């Protein structure tokens, strides 16, 4: 579990020197979230960037599945990892974009994370 966390944190907190710019934009560039009046958040942009962050998580989960979880008896453990990784991306994204007080933003990103996590569980549940 620590190794998975380390990979996840490296990917989203720039400890890896080979991080793609796309990840930097997905989580930490808060300037583009606000509309011109700077009071309202552009929820379309927020959702787009969070989908991007979720795609990064899916890529990391795919690599972890191939190296650590492919085989019998490990699927339930992998499902728990899927849940924890999507919970973590919600936490990191909301913290990095100062969204904790915005209920609408939190509702939207949690719904997106739930959708991606469910799709992962469904897809990996069919893998034999």
Description of the molecule:
The structure is a single chain. By secondary structure, the chain is mainly α. Helix content is 73%, strand content 0%. It has helices at 2-13, 21-28, 43-69, 75-96, 103-126. The radius of gyration is 15 Å and the shape is elongated.
Relevant terms:
disordered N terminus; mainly alpha; 5 helices; 128 residues; 73% helix
Structure, briefly:
The chain has 128 residues and is an all-alpha fold. It has helices at residues 2-13, 21-28, 43-69, 75-96, 103-126.
Topology:
Elements: H1 2-13, H2 21-28, H3 43-69, H4 75-96, H5 103-126
- The beta-strand count equals 0
What is the CA-based Rg, rounded?
15 Å
In total, the number of domains comes to 1
Largest beta-sheet details = none
Structural class: mainly alpha
pLDDT < 50 runs, ≥5 residues: 1-25, 27-31
Mean pLDDT value: 76
């Amino acid at each position: 579990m620590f190794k998975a966390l380390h990979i996840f944190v490296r990917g989203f907190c720039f400890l890896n020197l080979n991080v793609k710019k796309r990840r930097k934009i997905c989580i930490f560039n808060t300037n583009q979230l606000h509309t011109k009046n700077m009071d309202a958040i552009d929820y379309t942009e927020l959702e787009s960037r969070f989908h991007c962050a979720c795609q990064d998580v899916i890529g990391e989960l795919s690599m972890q599945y191939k190296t650590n979880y492919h085989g019998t008896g490990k699927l339930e453990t992998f499902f728990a990892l899927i849940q924890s990784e999507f919970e973590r991306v919600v936490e990191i994204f909301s913290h990095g974009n100062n969204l904790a007080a915005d209920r609408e933003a939190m509702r939207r990103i949690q719904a997106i994370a739930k959708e991606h996590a469910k799709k992962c569980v469904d897809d990996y549940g069919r893998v034999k």
